[in-house]
Each structure stands twice: as structure tokens, then as C-alpha cells.
């Protein structure tokens, strides 16, 4: 049974300009004190087409985690625009928050992100080269997509068991590390990558 | 009979392996396969029972679902109290769930609204022990134990009062164990396995009572489960899958002699599940018919792999009803409603069926009283132990008592409000953390949170703890998209205003303390509720004099500890007056801590002494001496790291046997002759030997015989090393045996001479001439004990140079057949204690000059005594000291729990408990173990208070108080075993104050103590 369950992720300062940092207020609950830190990551999916453009905006260790309910604010800088394909700068993409324990990812929260020009003129006639300073980022906070994975929370027990206990959908050679999911119902979504509690496609 | 298949009860088409109806009948649980995990779902019962509710959109159908099991859930079972739900699954785990209080329905983060959990059930314990899939779980009557069985061929008995403690693992099945059932009287548990056997185990010692194989010889094909059941009157045990003449049956096994003469026949395939109706029925009396009382009967439902269900009455030869083709696949589980008229059946095909019977069909159910009367008459014991009449109407007669009671209430409120700090902060929108509202915290979280860099330069955030986990009573509701608006907070505030604060009000003083614990604490919910209200109130009006505001975070921690123990206690003492369990004072808490500390060494010690006992007693020979040494050494090794104090109490194993035993077979007449012939084995001369006296400080004695020859005479060398410091001395005769303590070293030589040396090797006495050759030597502190071959015992205090015990013959205690001494102990006060092979232990009381029986392992009093309700919280009953060592572990909880469930009527049990506690107090006193004396005395007093024995309590108080006005003729001693009696009385007072019935006694003692203090 998962020792840590995420209770809520609140998206702070949303919408906001493209260059302002991401801020998520994460509350989670822990059943038993954890021996080691949790590692949280924010991954910005630069392009739905390829994982190549994923940017890990930041990763942070959270700890110590005694049993109880905790919260913290995870702040990470905006993505580097130069790493985003120009064609994908405007439009819908995804930001992921993942959490790993002992290198095993046990939860992944995905949000749709819509980048668009707030001004009608720019929206009508977008510049050929995207003007990131004008872009506004809007995270679809009301609709998080949560995927939970069974992992091995104990050090001592057999690691193999944890893998065995993962849901079959993951078994198909999909590594547990934080390979970003091209998904959330976007084009290019690999079917079956969102097991467990994931919602139906929107 | 009505039949209904509620289609909405499903696991999305996945198999449902188990179903169980909550004891209060308002909900039921299903367990089975989930999407890619095990799944437990709690459903609302009313839509099943009433069509209107089924159609009403506002009546929730699903109350909660838990996906926490990693693999398929094979069994879900509610505890008899309904407070807990246990689930076991293919992930080898058993999870125990408890309802958490909350404000409203909540959702799992990220799930859509329709999956909202109406109720919050939290996993409070995960039980790990099985190495294979858990197939069945079962709560014992009274919820003292939880049993689980698994494909690892074992049954595990868990202490349901103290998860995850394992009381026993029942091994003996050679196949997958697939079903469990408790005897309704609590004397047995039965399990059925794929190894074609059904085994019945005793709860007294967790040993096999019988194994039944005959009806299962022909059983071939395997079923997923083999859920057997015991009839509510206890007479019959009915198995799942059995065979009779190649036809599948459910075998009826009679409790009387475990006879297997009858069975339920008719199913075409294997029987998977049998479930008795919890009610016992009697024939419905028809108007005008003869009033001849008919025999009560039971009702039983049988489900099979052939997809059909049959319901039987034990008074009919044919089934009451058979329903074929009820499902598409095998029936997996059956559950009756508590009123005995409804039945839920679940199937591998993923659906559930509900059958509703009328009383005309089944008969008139007997009331619980009638049922317990049947138990009482059949087994001499009913599970319905009467609780004391409540004292809610008692009037508090004096201000001291009132003050005392109020203080206690205050304490409770403080405790609770501290909990409220935790629960309230989350359970109510207006909650606060450390005096700050959550809203404020959220505003400043980013600024306030502690961020550091790790050695490798990574960011590390220390999360802000916003709630502790303890009672499990908080909600996820708050976090899930409830707008944090001030107006909402306001409404919560007003709706939950002050009535709960009434106990604080001086106008209603008495009501609070006399609530039965089941009501006030057993379910933590009401407590939590009132608590959160208190805190809400407090925060809204900080100026109020309410004591419940706690602003220091440091206070939360101890409260939490208190609380967990609190619930544990309440589980242990259903029906006991609340005050008894609720008010451990700070003193007691401290005491517990120290006890816990002391517990560890004792554990070690005991394990070693246990192992000694198991060593078979051997014939007296020179070998025994070596063996003794070896044993002493092993004991010593195990004792490493033990505080020094205990090492003085080192038990020694001794291979001693009376010659009577040896000759027993040859000459029976010899046995009856009282034993002048009694002879204990003597250590033979050895060339050299080494003895470790203690490991901390490390101390060795080395003996070398016949080392130096001076002019033809031979000398023996005695060498002693203590923490590196050594000394040596020589003796003339050969040294036969040696012993040492921190204060003295003594050796026994040939020619019956005993020499004693100080720790530095100085001779303290000229050699003592023993009346006969030595058998065993033992030292504790400055006391030297010598047991001679002629079976006499002497103890001297070598420092004060006085005799404590003078050549006391052992004949009286070693009388009888093959009795041997299994353990010798010399307490710090120089009192010798002999543990005999028959489980009895005697100590020699020098002042009475007589042997006292201090312990008897076969003592039926110890078996019957049940004073758990009077135990101070936690494991304080593990009190270390000589008495505990002598009595070993035999007297701990498991046997006692067993006794509680079945042995004797309550009144007898009460007397037995009193007698047992009194003998413990007396034994501790005789052993002069002050610590244990105090422990048992307090326990005894608490029991007297709980059970309302006034005269004995008064006598104790009188003795402890002594004469208030000193008179010269008084024989009264102000101390007992080194404890001041009046201090003990002061400790007793809070205990006495817990029962309002004793308020006069309380006042008397209080006043007189005050007078004494003022003098």
C-alpha cells in the first residue's frame, strides 16, 4: 500500500505570463514515516510529438517526512523557450508533476497547459517567431490527470516484487523512471499508459 | 421469501470474492478484483432493502472504495463491534480499516465527482506475516483476536487489541488453508484446507484439538474458498466441500466428540461456502396450538460451485429453499444480516444477490439474552458479560471529590483539545495549526517553508506538517476543492457551537465522568466531534476561559501518544467505566515509560531462563557440573548489555534430581517413604573450569585444581578477573564449584569446606564447614547460598556475618515423585527461590521460617483471572523483578484472554481474579520486591475499584494510612518493603476517585492524609 498519497495540488498564480515561474502547492499524506526523501519533479512537455523536447524544470527533495499530513510549495522556473519547437510554442501542451521514492515513480499528475496570446490582435495574427514575452500560460487546474503506480516502499523487501506488483499496463517495457508521458489524450498518446486511477479521455 | 439482484453492486464486472454485512445492518462490504489491484467497496444497505431508496438519487449507493490492496481481495470481514473492517488478499496482506470522521464527502484527488467517497475508511493497520495469498479472515467473538489463513498453509492469530502483534501461528495443515470459523463461545477456531482436512484448534493454548479427515478423503477438485461455519449455539460445525458416496456435501461435525454422522446433501458440485444464521430460532407459536415449547434450531445457508444456494433449518430434514442458477459462476461468500432475516450472496461472476425471508418462514429468533442463556447452560459461560450498572445518577457528596472529578474532566478536555488541534485543523475549515489558520499558512507557505541545499547541491524542502496522524479521524474533504471562503468558515462555526462545552459548565458536573467508555471513547468519533467543536469555539472566541486552546506545538506530540493508547485501552475494556481508562495521570505515564525501559532486560533474561527450563534434567554425574557451567555461560552471554542490577537476580539452571525419581521405576514403595534418602547431585572434581559471573562488568572465575605441588601437597588455584583486574589465591583442597557476585566470590572445596572472598580476593571468613558435601553454590550481592547434597539449604549474609537461612531441608518441597529443582534464584534480599519441575516455585521466608508457594504454572487462578480492564495502559503488566522471573511468561496475556472468553461465569471469574491478584501481592511482598509489590498492589486496588469491592479496598487503605494520631502502643509499620505506605496511599487515591461509589472512602483518606501532612 502506498505510504504517500497526494491529497491535493493547487496551481498558484494561474494564469500567468509565460516567463513567470510555476508554482504548485502540494499537500500529501504519509502513513508511516519515510526513511528517505521524496523527490518531486516538474516536467514541461515542449512538444507533444517527441519526448526529446521535454524539459525537467526542476527537481526537489522533500523531507524529512514523518507520518502525517504535509504541504509545501514547489516552485520552478519557466521552461527555456529556446528548447521549445516554434510550432509548439502556442497551443496546448502538458506539464507533469511526478514524485519518486527510491527512484521509483509512484504518482504522476498531469495538467493541460494552454499557451496563447491574450491580446486579440496577436491571437489573430500570431508572429511568425513566437513572442514568448507576450504569451500567457493557462493551466487547466480543474482537471488534473493523476496516475498512480505501485512501488516498493520498503527497502528490505525484494525489488522484483515491486515490479511484479505493478499493474500489467506498465509491464510492457515502459520504464518506471520519469519518462514523460506523451498523453493525456493528446495526439500521439500511447494507449494504456495511464493505468490505475486515470480518467477517461476528456 | 424475496429475491433481489442489485445490479449496481458490482466491481465493474470483475469477480466479487467476499461479502459481509455490517453488524448494524446499514452497510455492507464487498471484496474482490479491481481494475489492476484488489478492491474493497463499502455499500449502502438501504438501497438494497428499500426500493424507494434505490431510486432516490440522493441516497448514495457506494459509500467508499479502497484500492489499496495490490492484488485481489479474497475476504472482507467486519469486526463484531462494527468499528473495524479487515480485508485479506492475494498481496499477502491483511488490512484493518477504520472509519474516519470528516465533514462531508470527499473525492480522491484527480478522480471525477461520481467516484466520491461518502465515507472515509482509513487503513489503520497492515498485518504482514503470511508468505502467500490470504484466503480468509475472521474476528473472534468479542473482537479479541483476528485470525487469518493463507495458502502458506498457516493460520495466524493476531492480537486485535494490539495490532500487529501475533499471538500464535497455527501450523499443521499441509495444504492451502481456505476457510476459518470461530466457535461462538470462543473456545475453538476451526480451519479447512486443501489438504483434505478440517482442523479444530484450542484457543487456550493454540494447539490442535482435532483433525478431521474422513469426510474429505474423496475430495478432489479444488475450490477457490472453503468457508466453513460454526452454528450460533456452538453445537455444530459445518464444513465446506466434503464428499459422501462420491456426492458433494457439507459435513456436519458435532462439537460433542467431533462426530461426523450427518451432512447436507444435494449440491451437484463442491460446496464453497457455508454460513450459519447468527440467530437461533424457535417455532412460531400459532394461536390456539399447543404451547409446548419447541426445541430451538439454527438456520444455515450453503453455497456451491454449482451456482446454487440452499438454506437449511436444523429442525428440517430437507432444505427450506434451494435456488438454482442464481449466478453464472460459483458462489463465493454469504453473509446474513444481524436480524437473521436477510442474506447477501456474492459470486465469481461479479454480482450479488439479496434474499429476504420473513419470520413465518424461519421462525421466531431468540433474543440475545435467550441465546446467552443457552450458552450459559451448555458451556457454563456466556459471552455476554454483564457490565456494572451505571452510576450516572450518583450525587457527588463533597467538594474534594467534585474538584477531583472536575480536574479529571479538565484533563480529558485538555487531551481532547490537543487532539482537536490535529483533527480540527483539517476536519473543520476553521481549523488552526499552531494558532494560525490554514488560510494564513497557505498564504505564506512559500516564504516560510524551509529550503536547504543538500551536499550535492540539490534543493531540499522540509514540508510543513499540517496534521498528525493518530486517531485517523480527519478528512480529506478539506483539501478537495472546497472554497476556502470566510463565509463558509463562519457557517461551520455557528452550526457547531457550544453545547459540547457543557461538561465544562459547573452546573453539570456529574454526567461526564460516568459515561461508559464504549460510548465516550470506544468510537473515537464522538470524541473527535466534540473536540473539534471545542476548538472551533476556542478559536473564535480566544478570550473565553476555555482551557481547550493549546497554542504550543510541542504539546501535540505527547497527546498523540496518549491518544493511541487511549483507543487501545478502550478496545480492551468494553463496558468498563470510562474513567477507569481515561485518566492515567502523569505519574502513571512516567511509570510506564520506566517500565518499558525495564522491559527489555527482562525479556532477555526470560528467554534465557526459558531455554534453561527446556534442558532436560539429567542424571547426577560429573557431567552435570560441566553442563551447568555451560548453561551458566549461555545464560550470561544472552544477558549481555543488561543492566547490572538484574544480573544479581540471575537464575541458575540446575540439574538436580532426587534419587527417589531415579529409583521410581524400580521401587514404587520407596516413593512413599519420606525422603531421608533425598540426595542432590554433587559436582565431581574437575581439573579446571571457568565460570563467567557476569558480563557487565565482565567477571570471570577460573579454577585450576592440583596445580602446584609443594612438597607433595597439591594446591588449587582460584583466579578471578573483573574488568581486567585480576587476583589469585590458592586453596588447599580441590575446588568443586564456585560462584560469584559483584560483592563476593565463594568456592566450595573438598571436605565440605566453603570459602568466601571479597571482590579483591581477601578472605572474608574462615572456611565454613557444610553439614554435607555441596551441591550448588549461588551468590547474589553479599548473600551466599549453598545447597548441599543432603538437600539442605543455607543462606548467609557474609558482610553482616549472619545466617539468613539455616540448613533448611528441601524435603518438604521436593516431596513426591520425580520432582526436581529446575531453577534457583537468590533475590537481592537474600531470599532463596526454588523453581521446581512441576511448575511450582517456593521461596523460603526467613521470618516465618517456612516455605511459601509464590508461583504455580498450573494455577487455575492465573488462567481464570482477568484483570485486563484494570491494567494500567500499555504493557505495564510486564513488570520486572524476581516474581516476574520466577513466574516466567506463563502468566501473560494469551492464556488470560482465552480464559476470559470461555472458562467460567463472570462472578466466579471475579473471585478468581481477586484471589489471583491477592496472591500476587502477597508473593511480591514475600520476595521483598518493592517494585513488584507496588505494581500488583496498584493493580489490585484498581481492580477492586472497578469491580466495586469496598471492604477489601477499605482494609488496604486503613493499613496504608495507619494511625493518624500516633500512639505508643501502635504496631503499625510506616513502610512496607522499603516503600512508605502513605505514599502508596497517595498513589491509590486517584484510582479510588475514579469510581464515584467510593467517594466517601476517597474523602476520608484524603482528609486524613491532609491532617497528617499538616502535622
TrEMBL record, chain A:
Subcellular location: Nucleus
Molecular function terms from GO: histone binding; histone chaperone activity
Any one Pfam family match given in the protein's UniProt record, by short name: ASF1_hist_chap
Sequence intervals crossing the membrane: none
Record keywords, A-Z: Chaperone, Chromatin regulator, Nucleus, Transcription, Transcription regulation
GO cellular component assignments: chromatin; nucleoplasm; protein-containing complex
InterPro entries xref list: ASF1-like, ASF1-like_sf
Coiled coil start-end: none
Biological process, per Gene Ontology: blastocyst hatching; DNA replication-dependent chromatin assembly; nucleosome assembly
Recorded family membership: Belongs to the ASF1 family.
Name recorded for this polypeptide: Anti-silencing function 1B histone chaperone
Organism listed in the record: Catagonus wagneri
UniProtKB/TrEMBL annotation, chain B:
Domain (Protein HIRA-like C-terminal) ranges: 761-960
PROSITE patterns membership: WD_REPEATS_2, WD_REPEATS_REGION
WD repeats: 66-98, 127-159, 170-201
Biased amino acid composition, Polar residues: 413-428, 510-521
A GO-annotated cellular component: HIR complex
Biased composition (Low complexity): 535-554
Keywords, alphabetical: Chromatin regulator, Nucleus, Repeat, Repressor, Transcription, Transcription regulation, WD repeat
Molecular function per GO: histone binding; nucleosome binding; RNA polymerase II-specific DNA-binding transcription factor binding
Biological processes annotated in GO: DNA-templated transcription; nucleosome assembly; regulation of DNA-templated transcription
Localization per record: Nucleus
InterPro entries: Beta-prop_CAF1B_HIR1, HIR1-like, HIRA-like_C, WD40/YVTN_repeat-like_dom_sf, WD40_repeat_dom_sf, WD40_rpt
Region annotated Disordered, chain positions: 406-428, 504-556, 566-585, 601-622
Residue span, CAF1B/HIR1 beta-propeller domain: 1-212
Main location: nucleus
Ranges of Basic and acidic residues composition bias in the record: 601-616
Annotated function: Required for replication-independent chromatin assembly and for the periodic repression of histone gene transcription during the cell cycle.
Family: Belongs to the WD repeat HIR1 family.
Protein name: Protein HIRA
Phylogenetic lineage: Eukaryota, Metazoa, Chordata, Craniata, Vertebrata
Gene from which this protein is expressed: HIRA
Amino acid at each position: 500500500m502506498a505510504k504517500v498519497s497526494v491529497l491535493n495540488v493547487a496551481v498558484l498564480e494561474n494564469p500567468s505570463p509565460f516567463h513567470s515561474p510555476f508554482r504548485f502547492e502540494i499537500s500529501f499524506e504519509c502513513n508511516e514515516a519515510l526513511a528517505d526523501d521524496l523527490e518531486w519533479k516538474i516536467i514541461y512537455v515542449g512538444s507533444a510529438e517527441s519526448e526529446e523536447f521535454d524539459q525537467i524544470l526542476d527537481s526537489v527533495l522533500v523531507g524529512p517526512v514523518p507520518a502525517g499530513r504535509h504541504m509545501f510549495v514547489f516552485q520552478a522556473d519557466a521552461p527555456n523557450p529556446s528548447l521549445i519547437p516554434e510550432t509548439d510554442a502556442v497551443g496546448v501542451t502538458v506539464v507533469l508533476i511526478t514524485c519518486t521514492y527510491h527512484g521509483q515513480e509512484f504518482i504522476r499528475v498531469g495538467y493541460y497547459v494552454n499557451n496563447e496570446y491574450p491580446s486579440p490582435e496577436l491571437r489573430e495574427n500570431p508572429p511568425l517567431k513566437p513572442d514568448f514575452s507576450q504569451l500567457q500560460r493557462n493551466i487547466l487546474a480543474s482537471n488534473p490527470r493523476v496516475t498512480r503506480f505501485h512501488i516498493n516502499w520498503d527497502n528490505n523487501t525484494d525489488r522484483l516484487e515491486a515490479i511484479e506488483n505493478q499493474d500489467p499496463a506498465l509491464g510492457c517495457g515502459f520504464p518506471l523512471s520519469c519518462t514523460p508521458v506523451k498523453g493525456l489524450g493528446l495526439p500521439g498518446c500511447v494507449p494504456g499508459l495511464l493505468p490505475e486511477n486515470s480518467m477517461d479521455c476528456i | 421469501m424475496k429475491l433481489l439482484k442489485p445490479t449496481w453492486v458490482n466491481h465493474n464486472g470483475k469477480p466479487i470474492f467476499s461479502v459481509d454485512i455490517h453488524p448494524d445492518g446499514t452497510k455492507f462490504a464487498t471484496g474482490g478484483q479491481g481494475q489492476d489491484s484488489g478492491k474493497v467497496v463499502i455499500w449502502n444497505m438501504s438501497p438494497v432493502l428499500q426500493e424507494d431508496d434505490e431510486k432516490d438519487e440522493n441516497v448514495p449507493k457506494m459509500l467508499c472504495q479502497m484500492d489499496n490492496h495490490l492484488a485481489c481481495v479474497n475476504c472482507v470481514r467486519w469486526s463484531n463491534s462494527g468499528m473495524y473492517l479487515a480485508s485479506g488478499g492475494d498481496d499477502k496482506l491483511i488490512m484493518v480499516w477504520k472509519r474516519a470522521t470528516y465533514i462531508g464527502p470527499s473525492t480522491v484527488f484527480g478522480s471525477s465527482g461520481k467516484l466520491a467517497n461518502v465515507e472515509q475508511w482509513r487503513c489503520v493497520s497492515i498485518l504482514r506475516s503470511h508468505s502467500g495469498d490470504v484466503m480468509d479472515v475472521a474476528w473472534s467473538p468479542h473482537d479479541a483476536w483476528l485470525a487469518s489463513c493463507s495458502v502458506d498453509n498457516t493460520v495466524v492469530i493476531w492480537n486485535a487489541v494490539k495490532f500487529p502483534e501475533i499471538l500464535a501461528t497455527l501450523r499443521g495443515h499441509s495444504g492451502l488453508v481456505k476457510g476459518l470459523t470461530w466457535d461462538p463461545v470462543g473456545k475453538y477456531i476451526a480451519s479447512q484446507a486443501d489438504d483434505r482436512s478440517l482442523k479444530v484448534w484450542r484457543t487456550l493454548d493454540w494447539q490442535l484439538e482435532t483433525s478431521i479427515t474422513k469426510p474429505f478423503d474423496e475430495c478432489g477438485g479444488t475450490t477457490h474458498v472453503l468457508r466453513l461455519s460454526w452454528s450460533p449455539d456452538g453445537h455444530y460445525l459445518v464444513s465446506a466441500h466434503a464428499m459422501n458416496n462420491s456426492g458433494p456435501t457439507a459435513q456436519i461435525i458435532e462439537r460433542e466428540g467431533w462426530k461426523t454422522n450427518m451432512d447436507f446433501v444435494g449440491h451437484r458440485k463442491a460446496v464453497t461456502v457455508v454460513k450459519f444464521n447468527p440467530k437461533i430460532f424457535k417455532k412460531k407459536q400459532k394461536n390456539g396450538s399447543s404451547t409446548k415449547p419447541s426445541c430451538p434450531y439454527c438456520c444455515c445457508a450453503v453455497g456451491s460451485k454449482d451456482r446454487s444456494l440452499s438454506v437449511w433449518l436444523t429442525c428440517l430434514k430437507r432444505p427450506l429453499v434451494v435456488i438454482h442458477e442464481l449466478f453464472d459462476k460459483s458462489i463465493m461468500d454469504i453473509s446474513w444480516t444481524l436480524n437473521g432475516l436477510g442474506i447477501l450472496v456474492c459470486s465469481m461472476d461479479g454480482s450479488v444477490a439479496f434474499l429476504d425471508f420473513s419470520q413465518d418462514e424461519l421462525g421466531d429468533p431468540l433474543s440475545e439474552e435467550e441465546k446467552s442463556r443457552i450458552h450459559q447452560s451448555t458451556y457454563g459461560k456466556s459471552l455476554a458479560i454483564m457490565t456494572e450498572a451505571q452510576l450516572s445518577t450518583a450525587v457527588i457528596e463533597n467538594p474534594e471529590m467534585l474538584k477531583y472529578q472536575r480536574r479529571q474532566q479538565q484533563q480529558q478536555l485538555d487531551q481532547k483539545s490537543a487532539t482537536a488541534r490535529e483533527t480540527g485543523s483539517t476536519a473543520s475549515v476553521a481549523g488552526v495549526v499552531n494558532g494560525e489558520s490554514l488560510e494564513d499558512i497557505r498564504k505564506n507557505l512559500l516564504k516560510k517553508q524551509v529550503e536547504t541545499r543538500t551536499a550535492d547541491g540539490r534543493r531540499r524542502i522540509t514540508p510543513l506538517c499540517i496534521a498528525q496522524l493518530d486517531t485517523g479521524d480527519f478528512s480529506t474533504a478539506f483539501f478537495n476543492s472546497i472554497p476556502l471562503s470566510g463565509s463558509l468558515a463562519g457557517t461551520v462555526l455557528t452550526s457547531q457551537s457550544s453545547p459540547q462545552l457543557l461538561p465544562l459548565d459547573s452546573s453539570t458536573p456529574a454526567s461526564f465522568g460516568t459515561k461508559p467508555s464504549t460510548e465516550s471513547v470506544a468510537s473515537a468519533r464522538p470524541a473527535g466531534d466534540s473536540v473539534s467543536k471545542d476548538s472551533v469555539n476556542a478559536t473564535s472566541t480566544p478570550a473565553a476561559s476555555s482551557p481547550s486552546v493549546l497554542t504550543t506545538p510541542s504539546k501535540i506530540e505527547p497527546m498523540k501518544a496518549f491518544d493511541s493508547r487511549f483507543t487501545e485501552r478502550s478496545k480492551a475494556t468494553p463496558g468498563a467505566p470510562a474513567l477507569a481508562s481515561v485518566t492515567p495521570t502523569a505519574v502513571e505515564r512516567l511509570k510506564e515509560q520506566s517500565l518499558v525501559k525495564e522491559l527489555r532486560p527482562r525479556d532477555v533474561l526470560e528467554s534465557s531462563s526459558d531455554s534453561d527450563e527446556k534442558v532436560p534434567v539429567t542424571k547426577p554425574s560429573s557431567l552435570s557440573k560441566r553442563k551447568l557451567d555451560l548453561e551458566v555461560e549461555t545464560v550470561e552471554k544472552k544477558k549481555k548489555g543488561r543492566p547490572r542490577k538484574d544480573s544479581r537476580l540471575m537464575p541458575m539452571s540446575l540439574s538436580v534430581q532426587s534419587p527417589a525419581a531415579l529409583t521410581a521405576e524400580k521401587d514404587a514403595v520407596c516413593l512413599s517413604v519420606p525422603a531421608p534418602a533425598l540426595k542432590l547431585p554433587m559436582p565431581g572434581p574437575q581439573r579446571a573450569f571457568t565460570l563467567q559471573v557476569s558480563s557487565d562488568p565482565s567477571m570471570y572465575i577460573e579454577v585450576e585444581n592440583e596445580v602446584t605441588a609443594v612438597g607433595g601437597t597439591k594446591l588449587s588455584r582460584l583466579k578471578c578477573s573483573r574488568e581486567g583486574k585480576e587476583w589469585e589465591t590458592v586453596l588447599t583442597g580441590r575446588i568443586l564449584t564456585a560462584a560469584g557476585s559483584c560483592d563476593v566470590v565463594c568456592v566450595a572445596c573438598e571436605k565440605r569446606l566453603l570459602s568466601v572472598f571479597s571482590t579483591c580476593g581477601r578472605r572474608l571468613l574462615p572456611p565454613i564447614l557444610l553439614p554435607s558435601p555441596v551441591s550448588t553454590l549461588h551468590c547474589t550481592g553479599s548473600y551466599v547460598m549453598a545447597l548441599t547434597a543432603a538437600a539442605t539449604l543455607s543462606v548467609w549474609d557474609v558482610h553482616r556475618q549472619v545466617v539468613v537461612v539455616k540448613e533448611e531441608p528441601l524435603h518438604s518441597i521436593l516431596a513426591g515423585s520425580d520432582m526436581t529443582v529446575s531453577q534457583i534464584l537468590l533475590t537481592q534480599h537474600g531470599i532463596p527461590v526454588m523453581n521446581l519441575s512441576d511448575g511450582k516455585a517456593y521461596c523460603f521466608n526467613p521470618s516465618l521460617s517456612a516455605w511459601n508457594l509464590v508461583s504455580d504454572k498450573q494455577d487455575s487462578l492465573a488462567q481464570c483471572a482477568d484483570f485486563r480492564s484494570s491494567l494500567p495502559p500499555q504493557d505495564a503488566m510486564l513488570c520486572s523483578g524476581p516474581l516476574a522471573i520466577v513466574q516466567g511468561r506463563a502468566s501473560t496475556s494469551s492464556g488470560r484472554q482465552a480464559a476470559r472468553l470461555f472458562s467460567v461465569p463472570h462472578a466466579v471469574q471475579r473471585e478468581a481474579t481477586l484471589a489471583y491478584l491477592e496472591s500476587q501481592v502477597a508473593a511480591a511482598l514475600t520476595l521483598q520486591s518493592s517494585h513488584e509489590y507496588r505494581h500488583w498492589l496498584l493493580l489490585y486496588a484498581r481492580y477492586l475499584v472497578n469491580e466495586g469491592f469496598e471492604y477489601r479496598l477499605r482494609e488496604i487503605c486503613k493499613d496504608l494510612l495507619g494511625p493518624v494520631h500516633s500512639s505508643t502502643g501502635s504496631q503499625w509499620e510506616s513502610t512496607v518493603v522499603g516503600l512508605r505506605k502513605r505514599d502508596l496511599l497517595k498513589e491509590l487515591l486517584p484510582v479510588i476517585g475514579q469510581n464515584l461509589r467510593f467517594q466517601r472512602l476517597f474523602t476520608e483518606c484524603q482528609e486524613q492524609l491532609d491532617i497528617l501532612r499538616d502535622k
